Amino acid sequence: MADTQINPRHPIDGTPEKKKVALGTSIGATIETYDFIGFGTAAALYFNDVFFPSSDPLSGTLLSFATLGIGFAVRPLGGIIGGYLGDKIGRKPVLVGSLLLMGIATVLIGVLPTYQQVGVWAGILLVAVRVVQGLAFGAEWGGAILMCFEHAPWRRRGLYTGITQAGFPVGLLLANLAFLVSVPLGDQWAWRVPFLLSVVLIVVGIVIRLKIEESPEFEELKAEGEIVKNPLLEVLRDDWRNVLRAFCLRITETAGYAVTVTFMLSYLTSEKLADRSVTLTGLMLAAGLGIAATTLWGALTDKVGRRPVYLVGTAITLLWGVPMFLMVNTGAAVWIVAAFIISYAICQNSLAGVQGAWFSELFAAKTRTSGASLAYQLSAVISGFTPLLATALYAAFGWIGPAVLVSGYGLLGLLAALVTQETWGPAERERVAALEAASRTATGTATGTGTSPTTSHG
Length: 458
Description:
- 79% of the residues lie in helices and 0% in strands.
- It contains 21 helices and no strands.
- The longest helix is centred in the N-terminal third of the chain and has 31 residues, at 121-151.
- The protein is globular, with a radius of gyration of 22 Å.
């Protein structure tokens, strides 16, 4: 652990801008999620008929989900580029650039021609724009989380990164609200309007992010000449085990979501268990609760540690697959809504709320963006094609296929949590308390100390 020499670049109580940074990164995450997840909702409800031949509904659904998966497949490349640039030139430029790129791609989706208008070119154009979305979203997460983490108070990094992560359910809520409100517009405009409306959010997000100060830890690395020549190669050489662990931890959350929400939307519609208004309302209620849930799960990790919360979340996911389908198969609106709430606010949010702090603490500051982004976005390849896999399993085995898939993802995350180091246990919390006391003795205020005691160097 670092010595107790006071260093204002690493304030124990966080930087003066910590709240503004948390708000700014959360709003940016909201906008990018609105854009990216909105595509998932549209893929489940509209794109099978709009961009692909309507003569074979199952094939249209498979092609629609394949297009959805392509966006996830290129996210690792976005994460690699964004992580590399974040460790080389700073976190802030990546935040602004990724948001601008995402906005342009999303608005373009809203003006694309349909299959009835241009034939197969409709699907090709959709894939091209989806690739751009995937690159932008892949670059987004690492920069946003790291900016928030490195400005936050040491004792409340779980809470602050949980606030950033809560931007994702806000984006989910807004996206599905837009699709719900647009239903009366008819099939031609119901899917276009939500994408076109994102232009307003993009302008707001760019203005906010331009006002955010750069990460103090990156500024210190730059001042001391500690910028790594090739952060990606260094993290893969020296810290590949943590990349692998975080990758497995993340799969449970993101791939689990792909079944319990994205595939479930299509399943409920195709089986005529619920109309679009019921499914979108259920998802909106879950997302609304998820805003608070994600933040609270993150705050809980500041009290009990990162690993215990993750163990609980993955264990619940492991047990949830079959009960979830039994609930929705009743066709009762109340059970369908309850299933969405449990899937999202408990299973998904309990994991997402932990990842910001835990993944950041697994890597050293000089390669943190590359390491965390790579692990986080590589898992997106699995999750991106999970709705396609779930659809194939359903065609072969019925609903029990995707139900077992959910449980399998839960088991993988549970095992990964058991073999990943705790970065904020009792020992770390006691060491921070000692540093706080030493800093107050030296200066009369809690101004800070050297390198964070939760930083891993592999």
